[in-house]
Structure formats: C-alpha cells, structure tokens
Specification:
The structure is a single chain. The chain is α/β, with parallel strands linked by helices and about 325 residues long. Helix content is about 45%, strand content about 15%. It has eleven helices and 13 strands. The protein has a seven-stranded parallel sheet with strand order 3-2-1-4-5-6-11, with helices on both faces. A two-stranded parallel ribbon has the order 7-10. Helix 3 packs parallel to helix 5, helix 7 packs across helix 9 and helix 9 crosses helix 11.
C-alpha cells in the first residue's frame, strides 16, 4: 500500500536513511526537520540535498523546515493533506548534554511529542511510530534488557523524556484509539552517522592523530545496531500496526538492537582495523548518566515483528569506515 508518511527528524542520521528507503518503496514522504544546531546544521542540509537529488522531480519527497514545538506549524502541515502514518524521530539527543540542558530536552522531547499526538488526534491520523531509546532502561545490571523490565528509574533527563514520550503515546492510544509502536533503539551506527556519536567522533580523532577520550576503565559495553537493521525494524513495526482491526487502538513497545554488546576497547580495535590506523587513548573519569551496558532482548521483536538484525559489528564498521574515508576526503 502506497502511503503519505510524515517523518519528523527526517534530515537526521536515522531519519534520512529511513526517508530514502520509504521513497524507494514508492511512498510519498514529508521530511520535517528544524536542523537544530546540536551539531552542524550543514550535515543535515547535506542529507536533505541527497534526498532531494534522489527523488528528482517525482514529487514524492518534500522536505519542510519546522520545529515540533510549533503547534501552529504542525497543524498547518496536517491540514494540507491526509497523512497515513507519522514516524516521530525528532528529538534532542544525547545523555550528557541533557544533564546540562534539561529544560530544552523537556520542551522538545516531551512538549514536541505531545504536539504531534494532539495533531494525530485532531486530524484523525491513526498510526504513529515513536523513536524511543535504550536509555530508558537505566543503569541495569541484569541483561539482556526486555520490554517488560522496570524502567521507572532513568538516570538522565534524556532517558526520562523518552520514557515520558512512551507514556504519552500510551495515553493517546488508550483514549483515542491511536495505533502506536514505541521503538527502543540501541546505539545506532553506520554511514552518515551523527558526528557527535562515539564511532564517528573516534574516526575523526584517529584520522587526525588525536587521542580518543575513554571514560572509566574501557569495559562499558554498547549494543551497536547498524542503521539498515533499524530501518528494517521500523518498517516491520509499521506492518505490525496495519495488522488486525485498524480502526481500533493498539500499543506496544519493541526493542530494536543488535543483541551483541561490544566493549568500548573492542570497538576501538575494530575501528583501527577498519580505518588502518592506530588509536591513542586518553583515559578519563566516568561520566554522570553513563550506564555500564546496553543489551537488547529481541525475543519479542522477533516473535511479533519478525525482526532479525543482519549486519554484524565487524561488517558494519567496515561499511562505516568506507563511507568515512570517502566522506572525509570530499
């Protein structure tokens, strides 16, 4: 079924990959992004340029500048034409910055999400996918993390805002028969990764001979997930929304991860191999809000969505490195 899909945060790392995939599958895509200065807006402008160049004159890709905190702007967007699905990825991201700017994170991640939910209610959009985060699990020692685990103790404002978004989605699903899937992403990486994230940041430092900051003892582990696997999971979640009685409400939460945690030092060694250079390490104290491990339990996502990640960390790192070496020479 060809549909008109609104992707908030569509010019970002995950969003731009998703918009390209949706367009390639024949859908009409409206990419909404405010190109926030959290990292260089030029990066998102490059992503927008690639999307528009790919779409050409088909008219099935529209990129709009706008902020999800602007309710009036959103209402105009929803009024213009019927939207079948909202994929809500727009957010202020990052654990450490959220500790420094909690009010901004609340405004964007909570109020912005509420604005979108209100527009879905007002304009009878029946389906929404919400980009949540593995950070909602907090500093858990028991692994892997399952969707039914207690997530009542987030350890950063970012995590708290993502959990608040999940709760708001449930409320609107319950009250207004909105069909919602909340997708908990686990450390997404790949070509065109955000420049503030560890893999891209480390690659830039290594390429210029600068030391890499390593917090704690280097044993922290992350469940790295290749971006194409995340996009696959998003589309599988949409298919789940369309099953059953589409006039009735539905709500659920799904992990989208790689389910193979990688220690930080092992990640650096893989990056050295992929880039063909050696890293110098700058050991630093642990950072507030960091967690020792993330690890996705995929049993539910596999059973209900059919989600099975395909790209292992070594393959994904080589693909990232190929992109980075080309991109850094442009």
């Amino acid at each position: 079924m060809v549909a008109h899909i609104l992707v908030t945060g569509g010019a970002g790392f995950i969003g731009s990959h998703l918009c390209a995939r949706l367009w390639a599958e024949g859908h009409r895509v409206t990419c909404l992004d405010n190109c926030d200065a959290f990292y260089s807006p030029a990066v998102k402008q490059e992503n927008i340029g690639r999307l528009l160049a790919m779409a050409g004159t088909t008219g099935r890709m529209v990129c709009r500048s706008g902020d999800i905190r602007d309710l009036q702007l959103l209402q105009h967007l929803f009024q213009e034409e019927s939207i079948a699905l909202v994929i809500h990825l727009a957010a202020l991201a990052g654990v450490r910055p959220s500790i420094e700017r909690p009010l901004a994170y609340s405004e964007v991640n909570i109020q912005g999400t509420l604005n979108l939910l209100e527009c879905c209610r007002q304009y009878q959009v029946r389906q929404l996918l919400f980009g949540s985060s593995s950070s909602v699990y907090g500093a858990r020692q028991r692994v892997p993390f399952a969707e039914g685990d207690d997530v009542s103790m987030p350890v950063s404002p970012y995590a708290a805002t993502k959990r608040a978004g999940e709760l708001l989605c449930y409320t609107y699903s319950h009250l207004y028969r909105l069909r919602v899937a909340c997708l908990r992403f686990f450390t997404v990486y790949g070509p065109a990764q955000r420049p503030d994230l560890a893999i891209h940041k480390f690659a830039r430092l290594m390429a210029t001979g600068q030391p890499l900051p390593v917090y704690g003892d280097g044993t922290t582990q992350r469940d790295y997930t290749y971006v194409d696997d995340i996009v696959d999971g998003i589309l599988l979640a949409w298919a789940w929304l369309q099953r059953g009685d589409t006039t009735a409400g539905a709500y659920d939460i799904f992990n989208l991860g790689g389910s193979h945690p990688v220690p930080r030092l092992e990640l650096i060694r893989l990056l050295e191999t992929s880039l063909g250079c050696t890293a110098s390490l700058d050991w630093q104290a642990e950072q507030p809000g960091d967690v020792p491990i993330t690890y996705a339990d995929l049993r539910k996502s596999t059973a209900l969505l059919g989600y099975r990640p395909q790209v292992d960390i070594a393959t994904g790192m080589q693909r990232f490195a190929t992109w980075f070496l080309t991109y850094s020479q442009d």
